[in-house]
Specification:
Blueprint lengths: L7 H5 L7 E2 L4 H11 L2 E7 L4 H10 L3 H10 E7 L8 H5 L1 H11 L6 E5 L5 E6 L5 H9 L8 H6 L1 H4 L3 H14 L5 H9 L8 H10 L8 H5 L3 H6 L2 H21 E10 L2 E8 L5 H11 L4 H16 L2 H14 L5 H14 L3 H10 L5 H6 L2 H12 L3 H15 L4 H11 L5
Parallel strand pairs: 1-3, 2-3
Antiparallel strand pairs: 2-4, 4-5, 6-7
Helix pairs in contact: 4-7, 10-11, 11-12, 16-17, 17-18, 18-20, 19-20, 19-22, 20-22, 22-23, 23-24
């Protein structure tokens, strides 16, 4: 577990980089901003957030970043979780952080909030960047009324018929990574387009298509030749699989199901497991709606159902059946199945089955993806086969072709009989 001391941002602060205030309260920061007529930049981070650490270490100390932010903003870093190592300054911000978190719906980290001199939120950015120049470019949008995302967003009701406005709104939403609102803007924009197969529109279809009713769905489901050239076949198949699962399978295997998207690919499927699933009826529905994909979903849907139910006996039976019958085995899904066994299953029969699934993966795929062997190593170790687990982990390192500190560390823990 990576840990970041409460004062890490202060400690990492350099004379050339962003100068963060570490004395004032949120109310005092806003008073200072109003008095000096400067915008506010607020870095919302947590101690467990690795991207936050990277930004603090690699981006914030850069001279080009410091020059821009120190000139244009009053800068403050606020810790959005609590630890027993928090200093007085961090503890004094607890109440302010709770209010900011609630008022502005901060749900991922890092999130960067930009406020006007009057204290009004005008722009935000979710996630870090790999270069200082990119971060400065994104922050510049907070100072320009034409690119301030929340200002653009506020005009949506009155200007949604303006395709030029929608295009700018989409660009701002992409920059801010507002994944919840982005599909709405994209799909409205796409309805005004006469040619959906332009490169830009195909990129928007990939980002905005969430349901079978969206304007880009026919491209994804049927007329996909150009999409595959520009975006890629794997991306299209994953997108189509998600939509079919969400609309056809999820409502059947869960009662009162609710899908929650947290951003960054993190998704939760809530609801109660259905006690009795009519698989014959479900398979017929798949054949009627998606005949080209029905056979594969008929194989994978029961796997998901029994995995979520933690019925490991039937889970193994259905996974083995899938591996024997599927014409297009999804090895990423197989890896996910193994990970579920590693995390939640305890019986030896299920663990042994998951270990053997690795043997179904072609050698050329394993050669370029050593994590399949690492998973097998973890499963072996959980069954108590320490020597075999260590041998597999060494095999994974050799396949990687370069030093692997994480794998070496796990080998040491295995040799000592420690938990990994």
């Amino acid at each position: 577990m990576f840990m970041l001391l409460a004062s890490a941002t202060a400690n990492a602060q350099s004379s050339e980089g962003i100068q963060f205030d570490h004395q004032l309260s949120w109310a005092q920061i806003k008073q200072k901003a109003k008095k000096e007529n400067k915008y506010i930049f607020l870095d919302a981070f947590t101690t467990w957030c690795v991207p936050c650490r990277i930004m603090t270490k690699n981006i914030f100390p850069l001279k080009e970043v410091g020059d821009f932010f120190n000139k244009n903003f009053i800068n403050v870093a606020a810790q959005f979780d609590k630890t027993n190592k928090d200093d007085i300054y961090t503890r004094n911000w607890y109440k302010d952080v709770e209010e900011i978190h609630s008022q502005y719906k901060v749900d991922s980290y890092p999130t960067y909030l930009f406020f006007t001199p009057e204290g009004n939120l005008i722009h935000f950015i979710k996630g870090g960047t790999t270069t200082g120049a990119e971060f400065v470019k994104k922050a510049e949008e907070a100072l320009n009324p034409k690119t301030q995302y929340l200002q653009l967003k506020a005009n949506f009701a009155n200007k949604k018929a303006d395709t030029s406005y929608l295009s700018n709104l989409i660009t701002a939403a992409e920059s801010s990574r507002d994944e919840q609102a982005l599909p709405k803007y994209i799909n409205l924009y796409l309805t005004s387009q006469t040619d959906l197969n332009t490169k830009r529109n195909l990129q928007l279809i990939a980002k905005g298509t969430r349901t079978s009713k969206d304007p880009g769905f026919p491209i994804v489901a049927k007329n996909f030749e150009q999409f595959d050239k520009v975006i890629g076949q794997k991306a299209r198949v994953n997108l189509l699989n998600t939509i079919i699962f969400d609309e056809v399978i999820f409502p059947v295997i869960k009662v009162n199901g609710v899908k929650t998207e947290y951003g960054g690919g993190m998704v939760a499927y809530g609801g109660d497991m259905a006690k009795n699933v009519d698989w014959t009826k479900l398979n017929q529905t798949l054949k009627d709606k998606y005949p080209d994909y029905a056979e594969e979903f008929a194989l994978t849907a029961p796997i998901t159902y029994y995995e979520w139910s933690k019925d490991w006996v039937n889970f193994v039976i259905k996974t083995d059946y899938y591996l024997g019958k599927s014409k297009h085995i999804d090895f990423d899904k197989l890896f996910t199945c193994q990970n579920s066994v590693l995390m939640f299953a305890e019986d030896s029969a299920t663990l042994e089955a998951a270990i053997n699934w690795t043997n179904k993966i072609p050698k050329d795929i394993i050669k370029s993806n050593p994590w399949y062997i690492k998973m097998q190593s973890h499963l072996l170790y959980k069954t108590g086969k320490k020597d075999a687990a260590i041998a597999k982990m060494k095999e994974a390192i050799e396949l990687g072709g370069q030093p692997d500190e994480s794998a070496e560390s796990e080998i040491k823990k295995m040799m000592a009989g420690e938990k990994i």
